[in-house]
Design a protein that fits this description.
Blueprint: H1 2-29, E1 45-50, E2 53-58, E3 64-67, H2 70-75, E4 83-85, E5 101-103, H3 109-114, E6 118-121, H4 127-134, E7 139-141, H5 150-161, H6 164-188, E8 193-200, E9 205-209, H7 218-221, E10 226-227, H8 229-233, E11 238-240, E12 253-258, H9 269-272, H10 278-281, H11 284-287, E13 291-293, H12 296-299, H13 304-318
Parallel strand pairs: 3-6, 4-5, 6-7, 8-10, 8-12, 12-13
Antiparallel strand pairs: 1-2, 8-9, 9-11
C-alpha cells in the first residue's frame, strides 16, 4: 500500500512539472492569439487630432484606405484596401498595388465596398470631401504643417496606425539611401546644374519646377544636386517657361516628364512634339545628350518610395 502511494505521488509530481513546462513554452512561443481568441486591442479606439479636428480611430486598424498617401502606407508595410485613381492623372503605377481602384472624382461606391476601418488623407482632400469620407469610416486628415515634409508625414501616419517604431526604421533606411546617393553624386556631378521640366499635356506648355517643389525639391535638398539659376531663384513651386526664357535654360542636365499618362499615351502625342521644336533643340543639355525622360508616376510624387525611385533614376543617369 505504501509503495502504491509513493508511485501515485511521483506520478502527480511528474504531471505537475509537465503542465508547468507546457505553460512556459506557450508563454514564450505563442505570440499570436489562439483560434477563437481575440487581440487585446480588438474593438478599442483612441482619439487623435487631425487638420479638421479630433477623430476617434481604431487602436490597431486592419483595413486602411490612404487617399493620396498610399506610398507612405506601403513604406510602412501596410497594403491599402483601395488605390486612388484620377481620370486625368491615372494612378501611382510605381507602387505595383493589386487592389481595387477608387476614382476620387466620382462615386464613393468602391471605397464603401472596400470596407475600411480607417481612412487617411492628405491636403488633396478638402473639408467637403473629408465629411463625405467620414461617413464611410473614421477619417484622419494630415495636419497642414507636415505636408511639405515626407519624414514628418511618415511619423504621423505611423502614429495613427499604432506602429510608431516602424517609422524609425523606415526613415533610417531612407536617410542611408539618400546619404549614399549624395556622396556618389557629389563625386560624379559636382556643381553641374540640374533642372526638372514637366510637359503640361493640357495646354501644351513646359513648366519648370522650383527648388521647393513638393515633387522634386528633394533632389536638391537631400541629394545635393545644384539647381539651375532659374530654379534656385523661383519662389513658386512651378512656372511655365516662356519662349523667350527657354533658350536661357542652360542647365547641364534636364529631367523631363509628361503631366498625365505616359510617354506612349495616345493623348500625349501632340504635347510631346514640344521636344521636337527648334527652341527646345537649341538648349545646351539637349545638344549634349543630357536630357533624361522620366516616368510621371513617381516623379510627380514627393513621398518616400517615390523619392527612392527618383534617386535610383538619377544614379542611373548621372553616375557612370
Amino acid at each position: 500500500m505504501a509503495r502504491s502511494r509513493r508511485m501515485l505521488a511521483v506520478g502527480m509530481t511528474l504531471l505537475l512539472v509537465l503542465a508547468v513546462g507546457l505553460t512556459g513554452c506557450g508563454a514564450t512561443h505563442n505570440e499570436t492569439p489562439a483560434a477563437g481568441q481575440t487581440d487585446a486591442n480588438e474593438g478599442k479606439t483612441r482619439v487623435v487630432k487631425g487638420e479638421f479636428g479630433d477623430v476617434t480611430i481604431p487602436v490597431k486598424p486592419k483595413k486602411v484606405a490612404g487617399i493620396y498617401v498610399e506610398d507612405y502606407l506601403q513604406a510602412l508595410g501596410v497594403t491599402p484596401v483601395v488605390q486612388w485613381y484620377h481620370p486625368n492623372w491615372g494612378k501611382q503605377d510605381y507602387l505595383g498595388l493589386n487592389v481595387p481602384t477608387f476614382d476620387t472624382t466620382g462615386s464613393i461606391e468602391a471605397l464603401v465596398a472596400a470596407g475600411p476601418d480607417l481612412i487617411i488623407v492628405d491636403g488633396g482632400v478638402d473639408a467637403a470631401k473629408y465629411e463625405l469620407y467620414s461617413k464611410v469610416a473614421p477619417t484622419y486628415r494630415l495636419p497642414e504643417a507636415v505636408l511639405q515634409s515626407p519624414p514628418e508625414i511618415v511619423k504621423k501616419i505611423a502614429d495613427v496606425l499604432g506602429i510608431p517604431e516602424k517609422a524609425e526604421s523606415v526613415l533610417a533606411e531612407y536617410n542611408r539611401k539618400m546619404a549614399d546617393a549624395k556622396a556618389k553624386l557629389d563625386k560624379a556631378v559636382g556643381e553641374q546644374t540640374v533642372a526638372v521640366v514637366r510637359i503640361n499635356v493640357g495646354d501644351k506648355s513646359l513648366a519648370l519646377f522650383g527648388i521647393n517643389n513638393r515633387y522634386t525639391g528633394n533632389i536638391y535638398s537631400e541629394l545635393g544636386l545644384a539647381p539651375h539659376r532659374f530654379v534656385k531663384e523661383m519662389k513658386e513651386f512651378q512656372a511655365v517657361l516662356s519662349e523667350e526664357k527657354l533658350p536661357e535654360l542652360d542647365a547641364d542636365h534636364l529631367i523631363v516628364f509628361p503631366s498625365n499618362g505616359s510617354w506612349t499615351s495616345e493623348e500625349n502625342k501632340e504635347a510631346v512634339k514640344l521636344l521636337d521644336s527648334p527652341l527646345w533643340k537649341s538648349i545646351p543639355a539637349v545638344k549634349n545628350g543630357h536630357v533624361y525622360k522620366a516616368e510621371r508616376t513617381h516623379w510627380q510624387s514627393g513621398a518616400v518610395m517615390a523619392n527612392k525611385a527618383k534617386t535610383d533614376d538619377i544614379l542611373k543617369w548621372l553616375v557612370k
